[in-house]
Structures are given as structure tokens and as C-alpha cells.
Amino acid sequence: MPTGVAIHDARDQLFDAAERVLLRDGPSALTSRAVTTEAGCAKGVLHRHFADFDAFLAELVLDRIAQLDAQEAALRKCAGTGTVTDNLTSALTDLFGSVAVAIVGLVTSRDGLRARLRQTRPTGIPILTDAAAMFASYLTTERELGRVAADADVDTLAPTLIGAGHLLFADRTGTPPEAGAIRKVVSTVIAGVVQEPLR
User: Fold this and answer.
1) Is the Cβ–Cβ distance between 127 and 61 less than 8 Å?
2) Taking the CB of residue 67, how many other CB atoms lie within 10 A of it?
3) Going by C-beta distance under 8 Å and a sequence separation of 6 or more, which residues neighbour residue 47?
4) Mean pLDDT for the chain?
5) Pick from 17, 19, 14: which is nearest to 48 by CA?
6) Per-residue model confidence as pLDDT tens digits over 158-190
7) Cα dihedral 70/75/79/81 (nearest 10)
8) How far apart are CA 39 and CA 156, in angstroms?
9) Burial code of 145-163, b = ≥16 C-beta within 10 A, e = fewer?
10) Residues 100, 165 contacting (CB under 8 angstroms)
11) CA separation for the pair 91, 181 (Å, rounded)
12) What is the reported pLDDT for 124?
């Protein structure tokens, strides 16, 4: 891009470029040069908007976490409809079919990024912890509707579902798990608390 040409929505363009690099080439390939090359802009553009590359990556992670809000709204809207198992299976598939697996790899591979994120998120692994909270919220709603047992420990069930789901999807370059495998994990985790017939 020629010098002096303004880039509209530079922050979003840089985030989208970083996500493409991350999904295509993995966390180790994510450098400021790779991001700006992918975005088609000069390297200085990134540093005009962010203090350093770890600051950029932290904002990228937080931006992608904020996108979970739409997934949470969709999941909560499903409460009381369909089956709990199907709703959770679909939510796990949507979650890990997105950039979430790559974000986890990025956070665990960069000490500077983890340190920066710890300033505002002192516990857990960003995105996975947020997804667990989303699942706990949904399960709480289903418990209130009587479709999950009144004594169900949703704060344990939710991270169990997220952890098991992450293991199924963790190989970024491998073949994604089949729907039946995801559903089996969900069915097994919630079998003792769901108040509906399991297919």
C-alpha cells in the first residue's frame, strides 16, 4: 500500500489478517510482518495503532472473545427448545469450528501475551474460560426450566464439556471430529443430569 493512503478500519483489518495467518499457518507464523503483509499495509501501520506486537495480540484475543457474545445469545435462545444434548453439541461445534482452537495455541505459546492478558484475566485460559462461562449460563437456564437436574453442578459440567470438546478439536491441521463423536462426548458428560430422553 502506498505511503500516505489511509486505511479505513485498520484495527479490524489487522485483526482479520492475523486470524487468517493464525488459521492458515499456526501461532508460530504470527509475526507483525506476516500480519501487515496479509493485510496489505506497511509494518508501521500496526505500530501506529498498538504499543507493541503483544499489545496487538492481546487486543486480538479480547476482540475474538467478545465475539462469543453472539454465540452465547444464540445458545441461551435455544434453552427450552430441541434437546439439551443437541444444543450443546451444536454449540461445541460452533465454538471449536471457529478461531478458538488457534487462539488457545497462540495464548499458550507466547509468554508475553499471557502476561499481558493476566493483567485483566488473572485465571484460566482466555476464550476457554469464557466459553465455559457461556455453557454454565446455558445449563443454569436449562436447570431453571427443569430440563437439567436441580442439583446439577453446572460450574463443573461446563468446563468438563469445554475441555473434552477442545481435546476433540485440538489438532488444528487434522480432520475435524465427526458430529457423532462430539454428540457422544456431550451425552456422556451430561448423562447423569439431563431430564430428557437421550437418543
Assistant:
1) yes
2) 12
3) 32
4) 89
5) 14
6) 999 999 999 999 877 778 899 999 999 999 999
7) 110
8) 41
9) eebbeeebebeebbbbbbe
10) no
11) 14
12) 84
pLDDT of residue 149: 96
74 close to 135: Cβ distance less than 8 angstroms:
no
Closest CA to 103 of 4, 174, 8, 22: 22
Residues 79-132 have pLDDT tens digits of 999 999 999 999 999 998 878 888 998 998 998 898 899 888 888 888 899 999
**Alpha-carbon gap, residue 89 to 86, rounded angstroms:** 5
Residue 106 grid cell: 497462540
Give the span between the Cα atoms of 158 and 89, in whole angstroms: 12
Report residue 141 as a C-alpha cell: 437456564
- Kindly state the cell numbers that stand for 47: 505500530
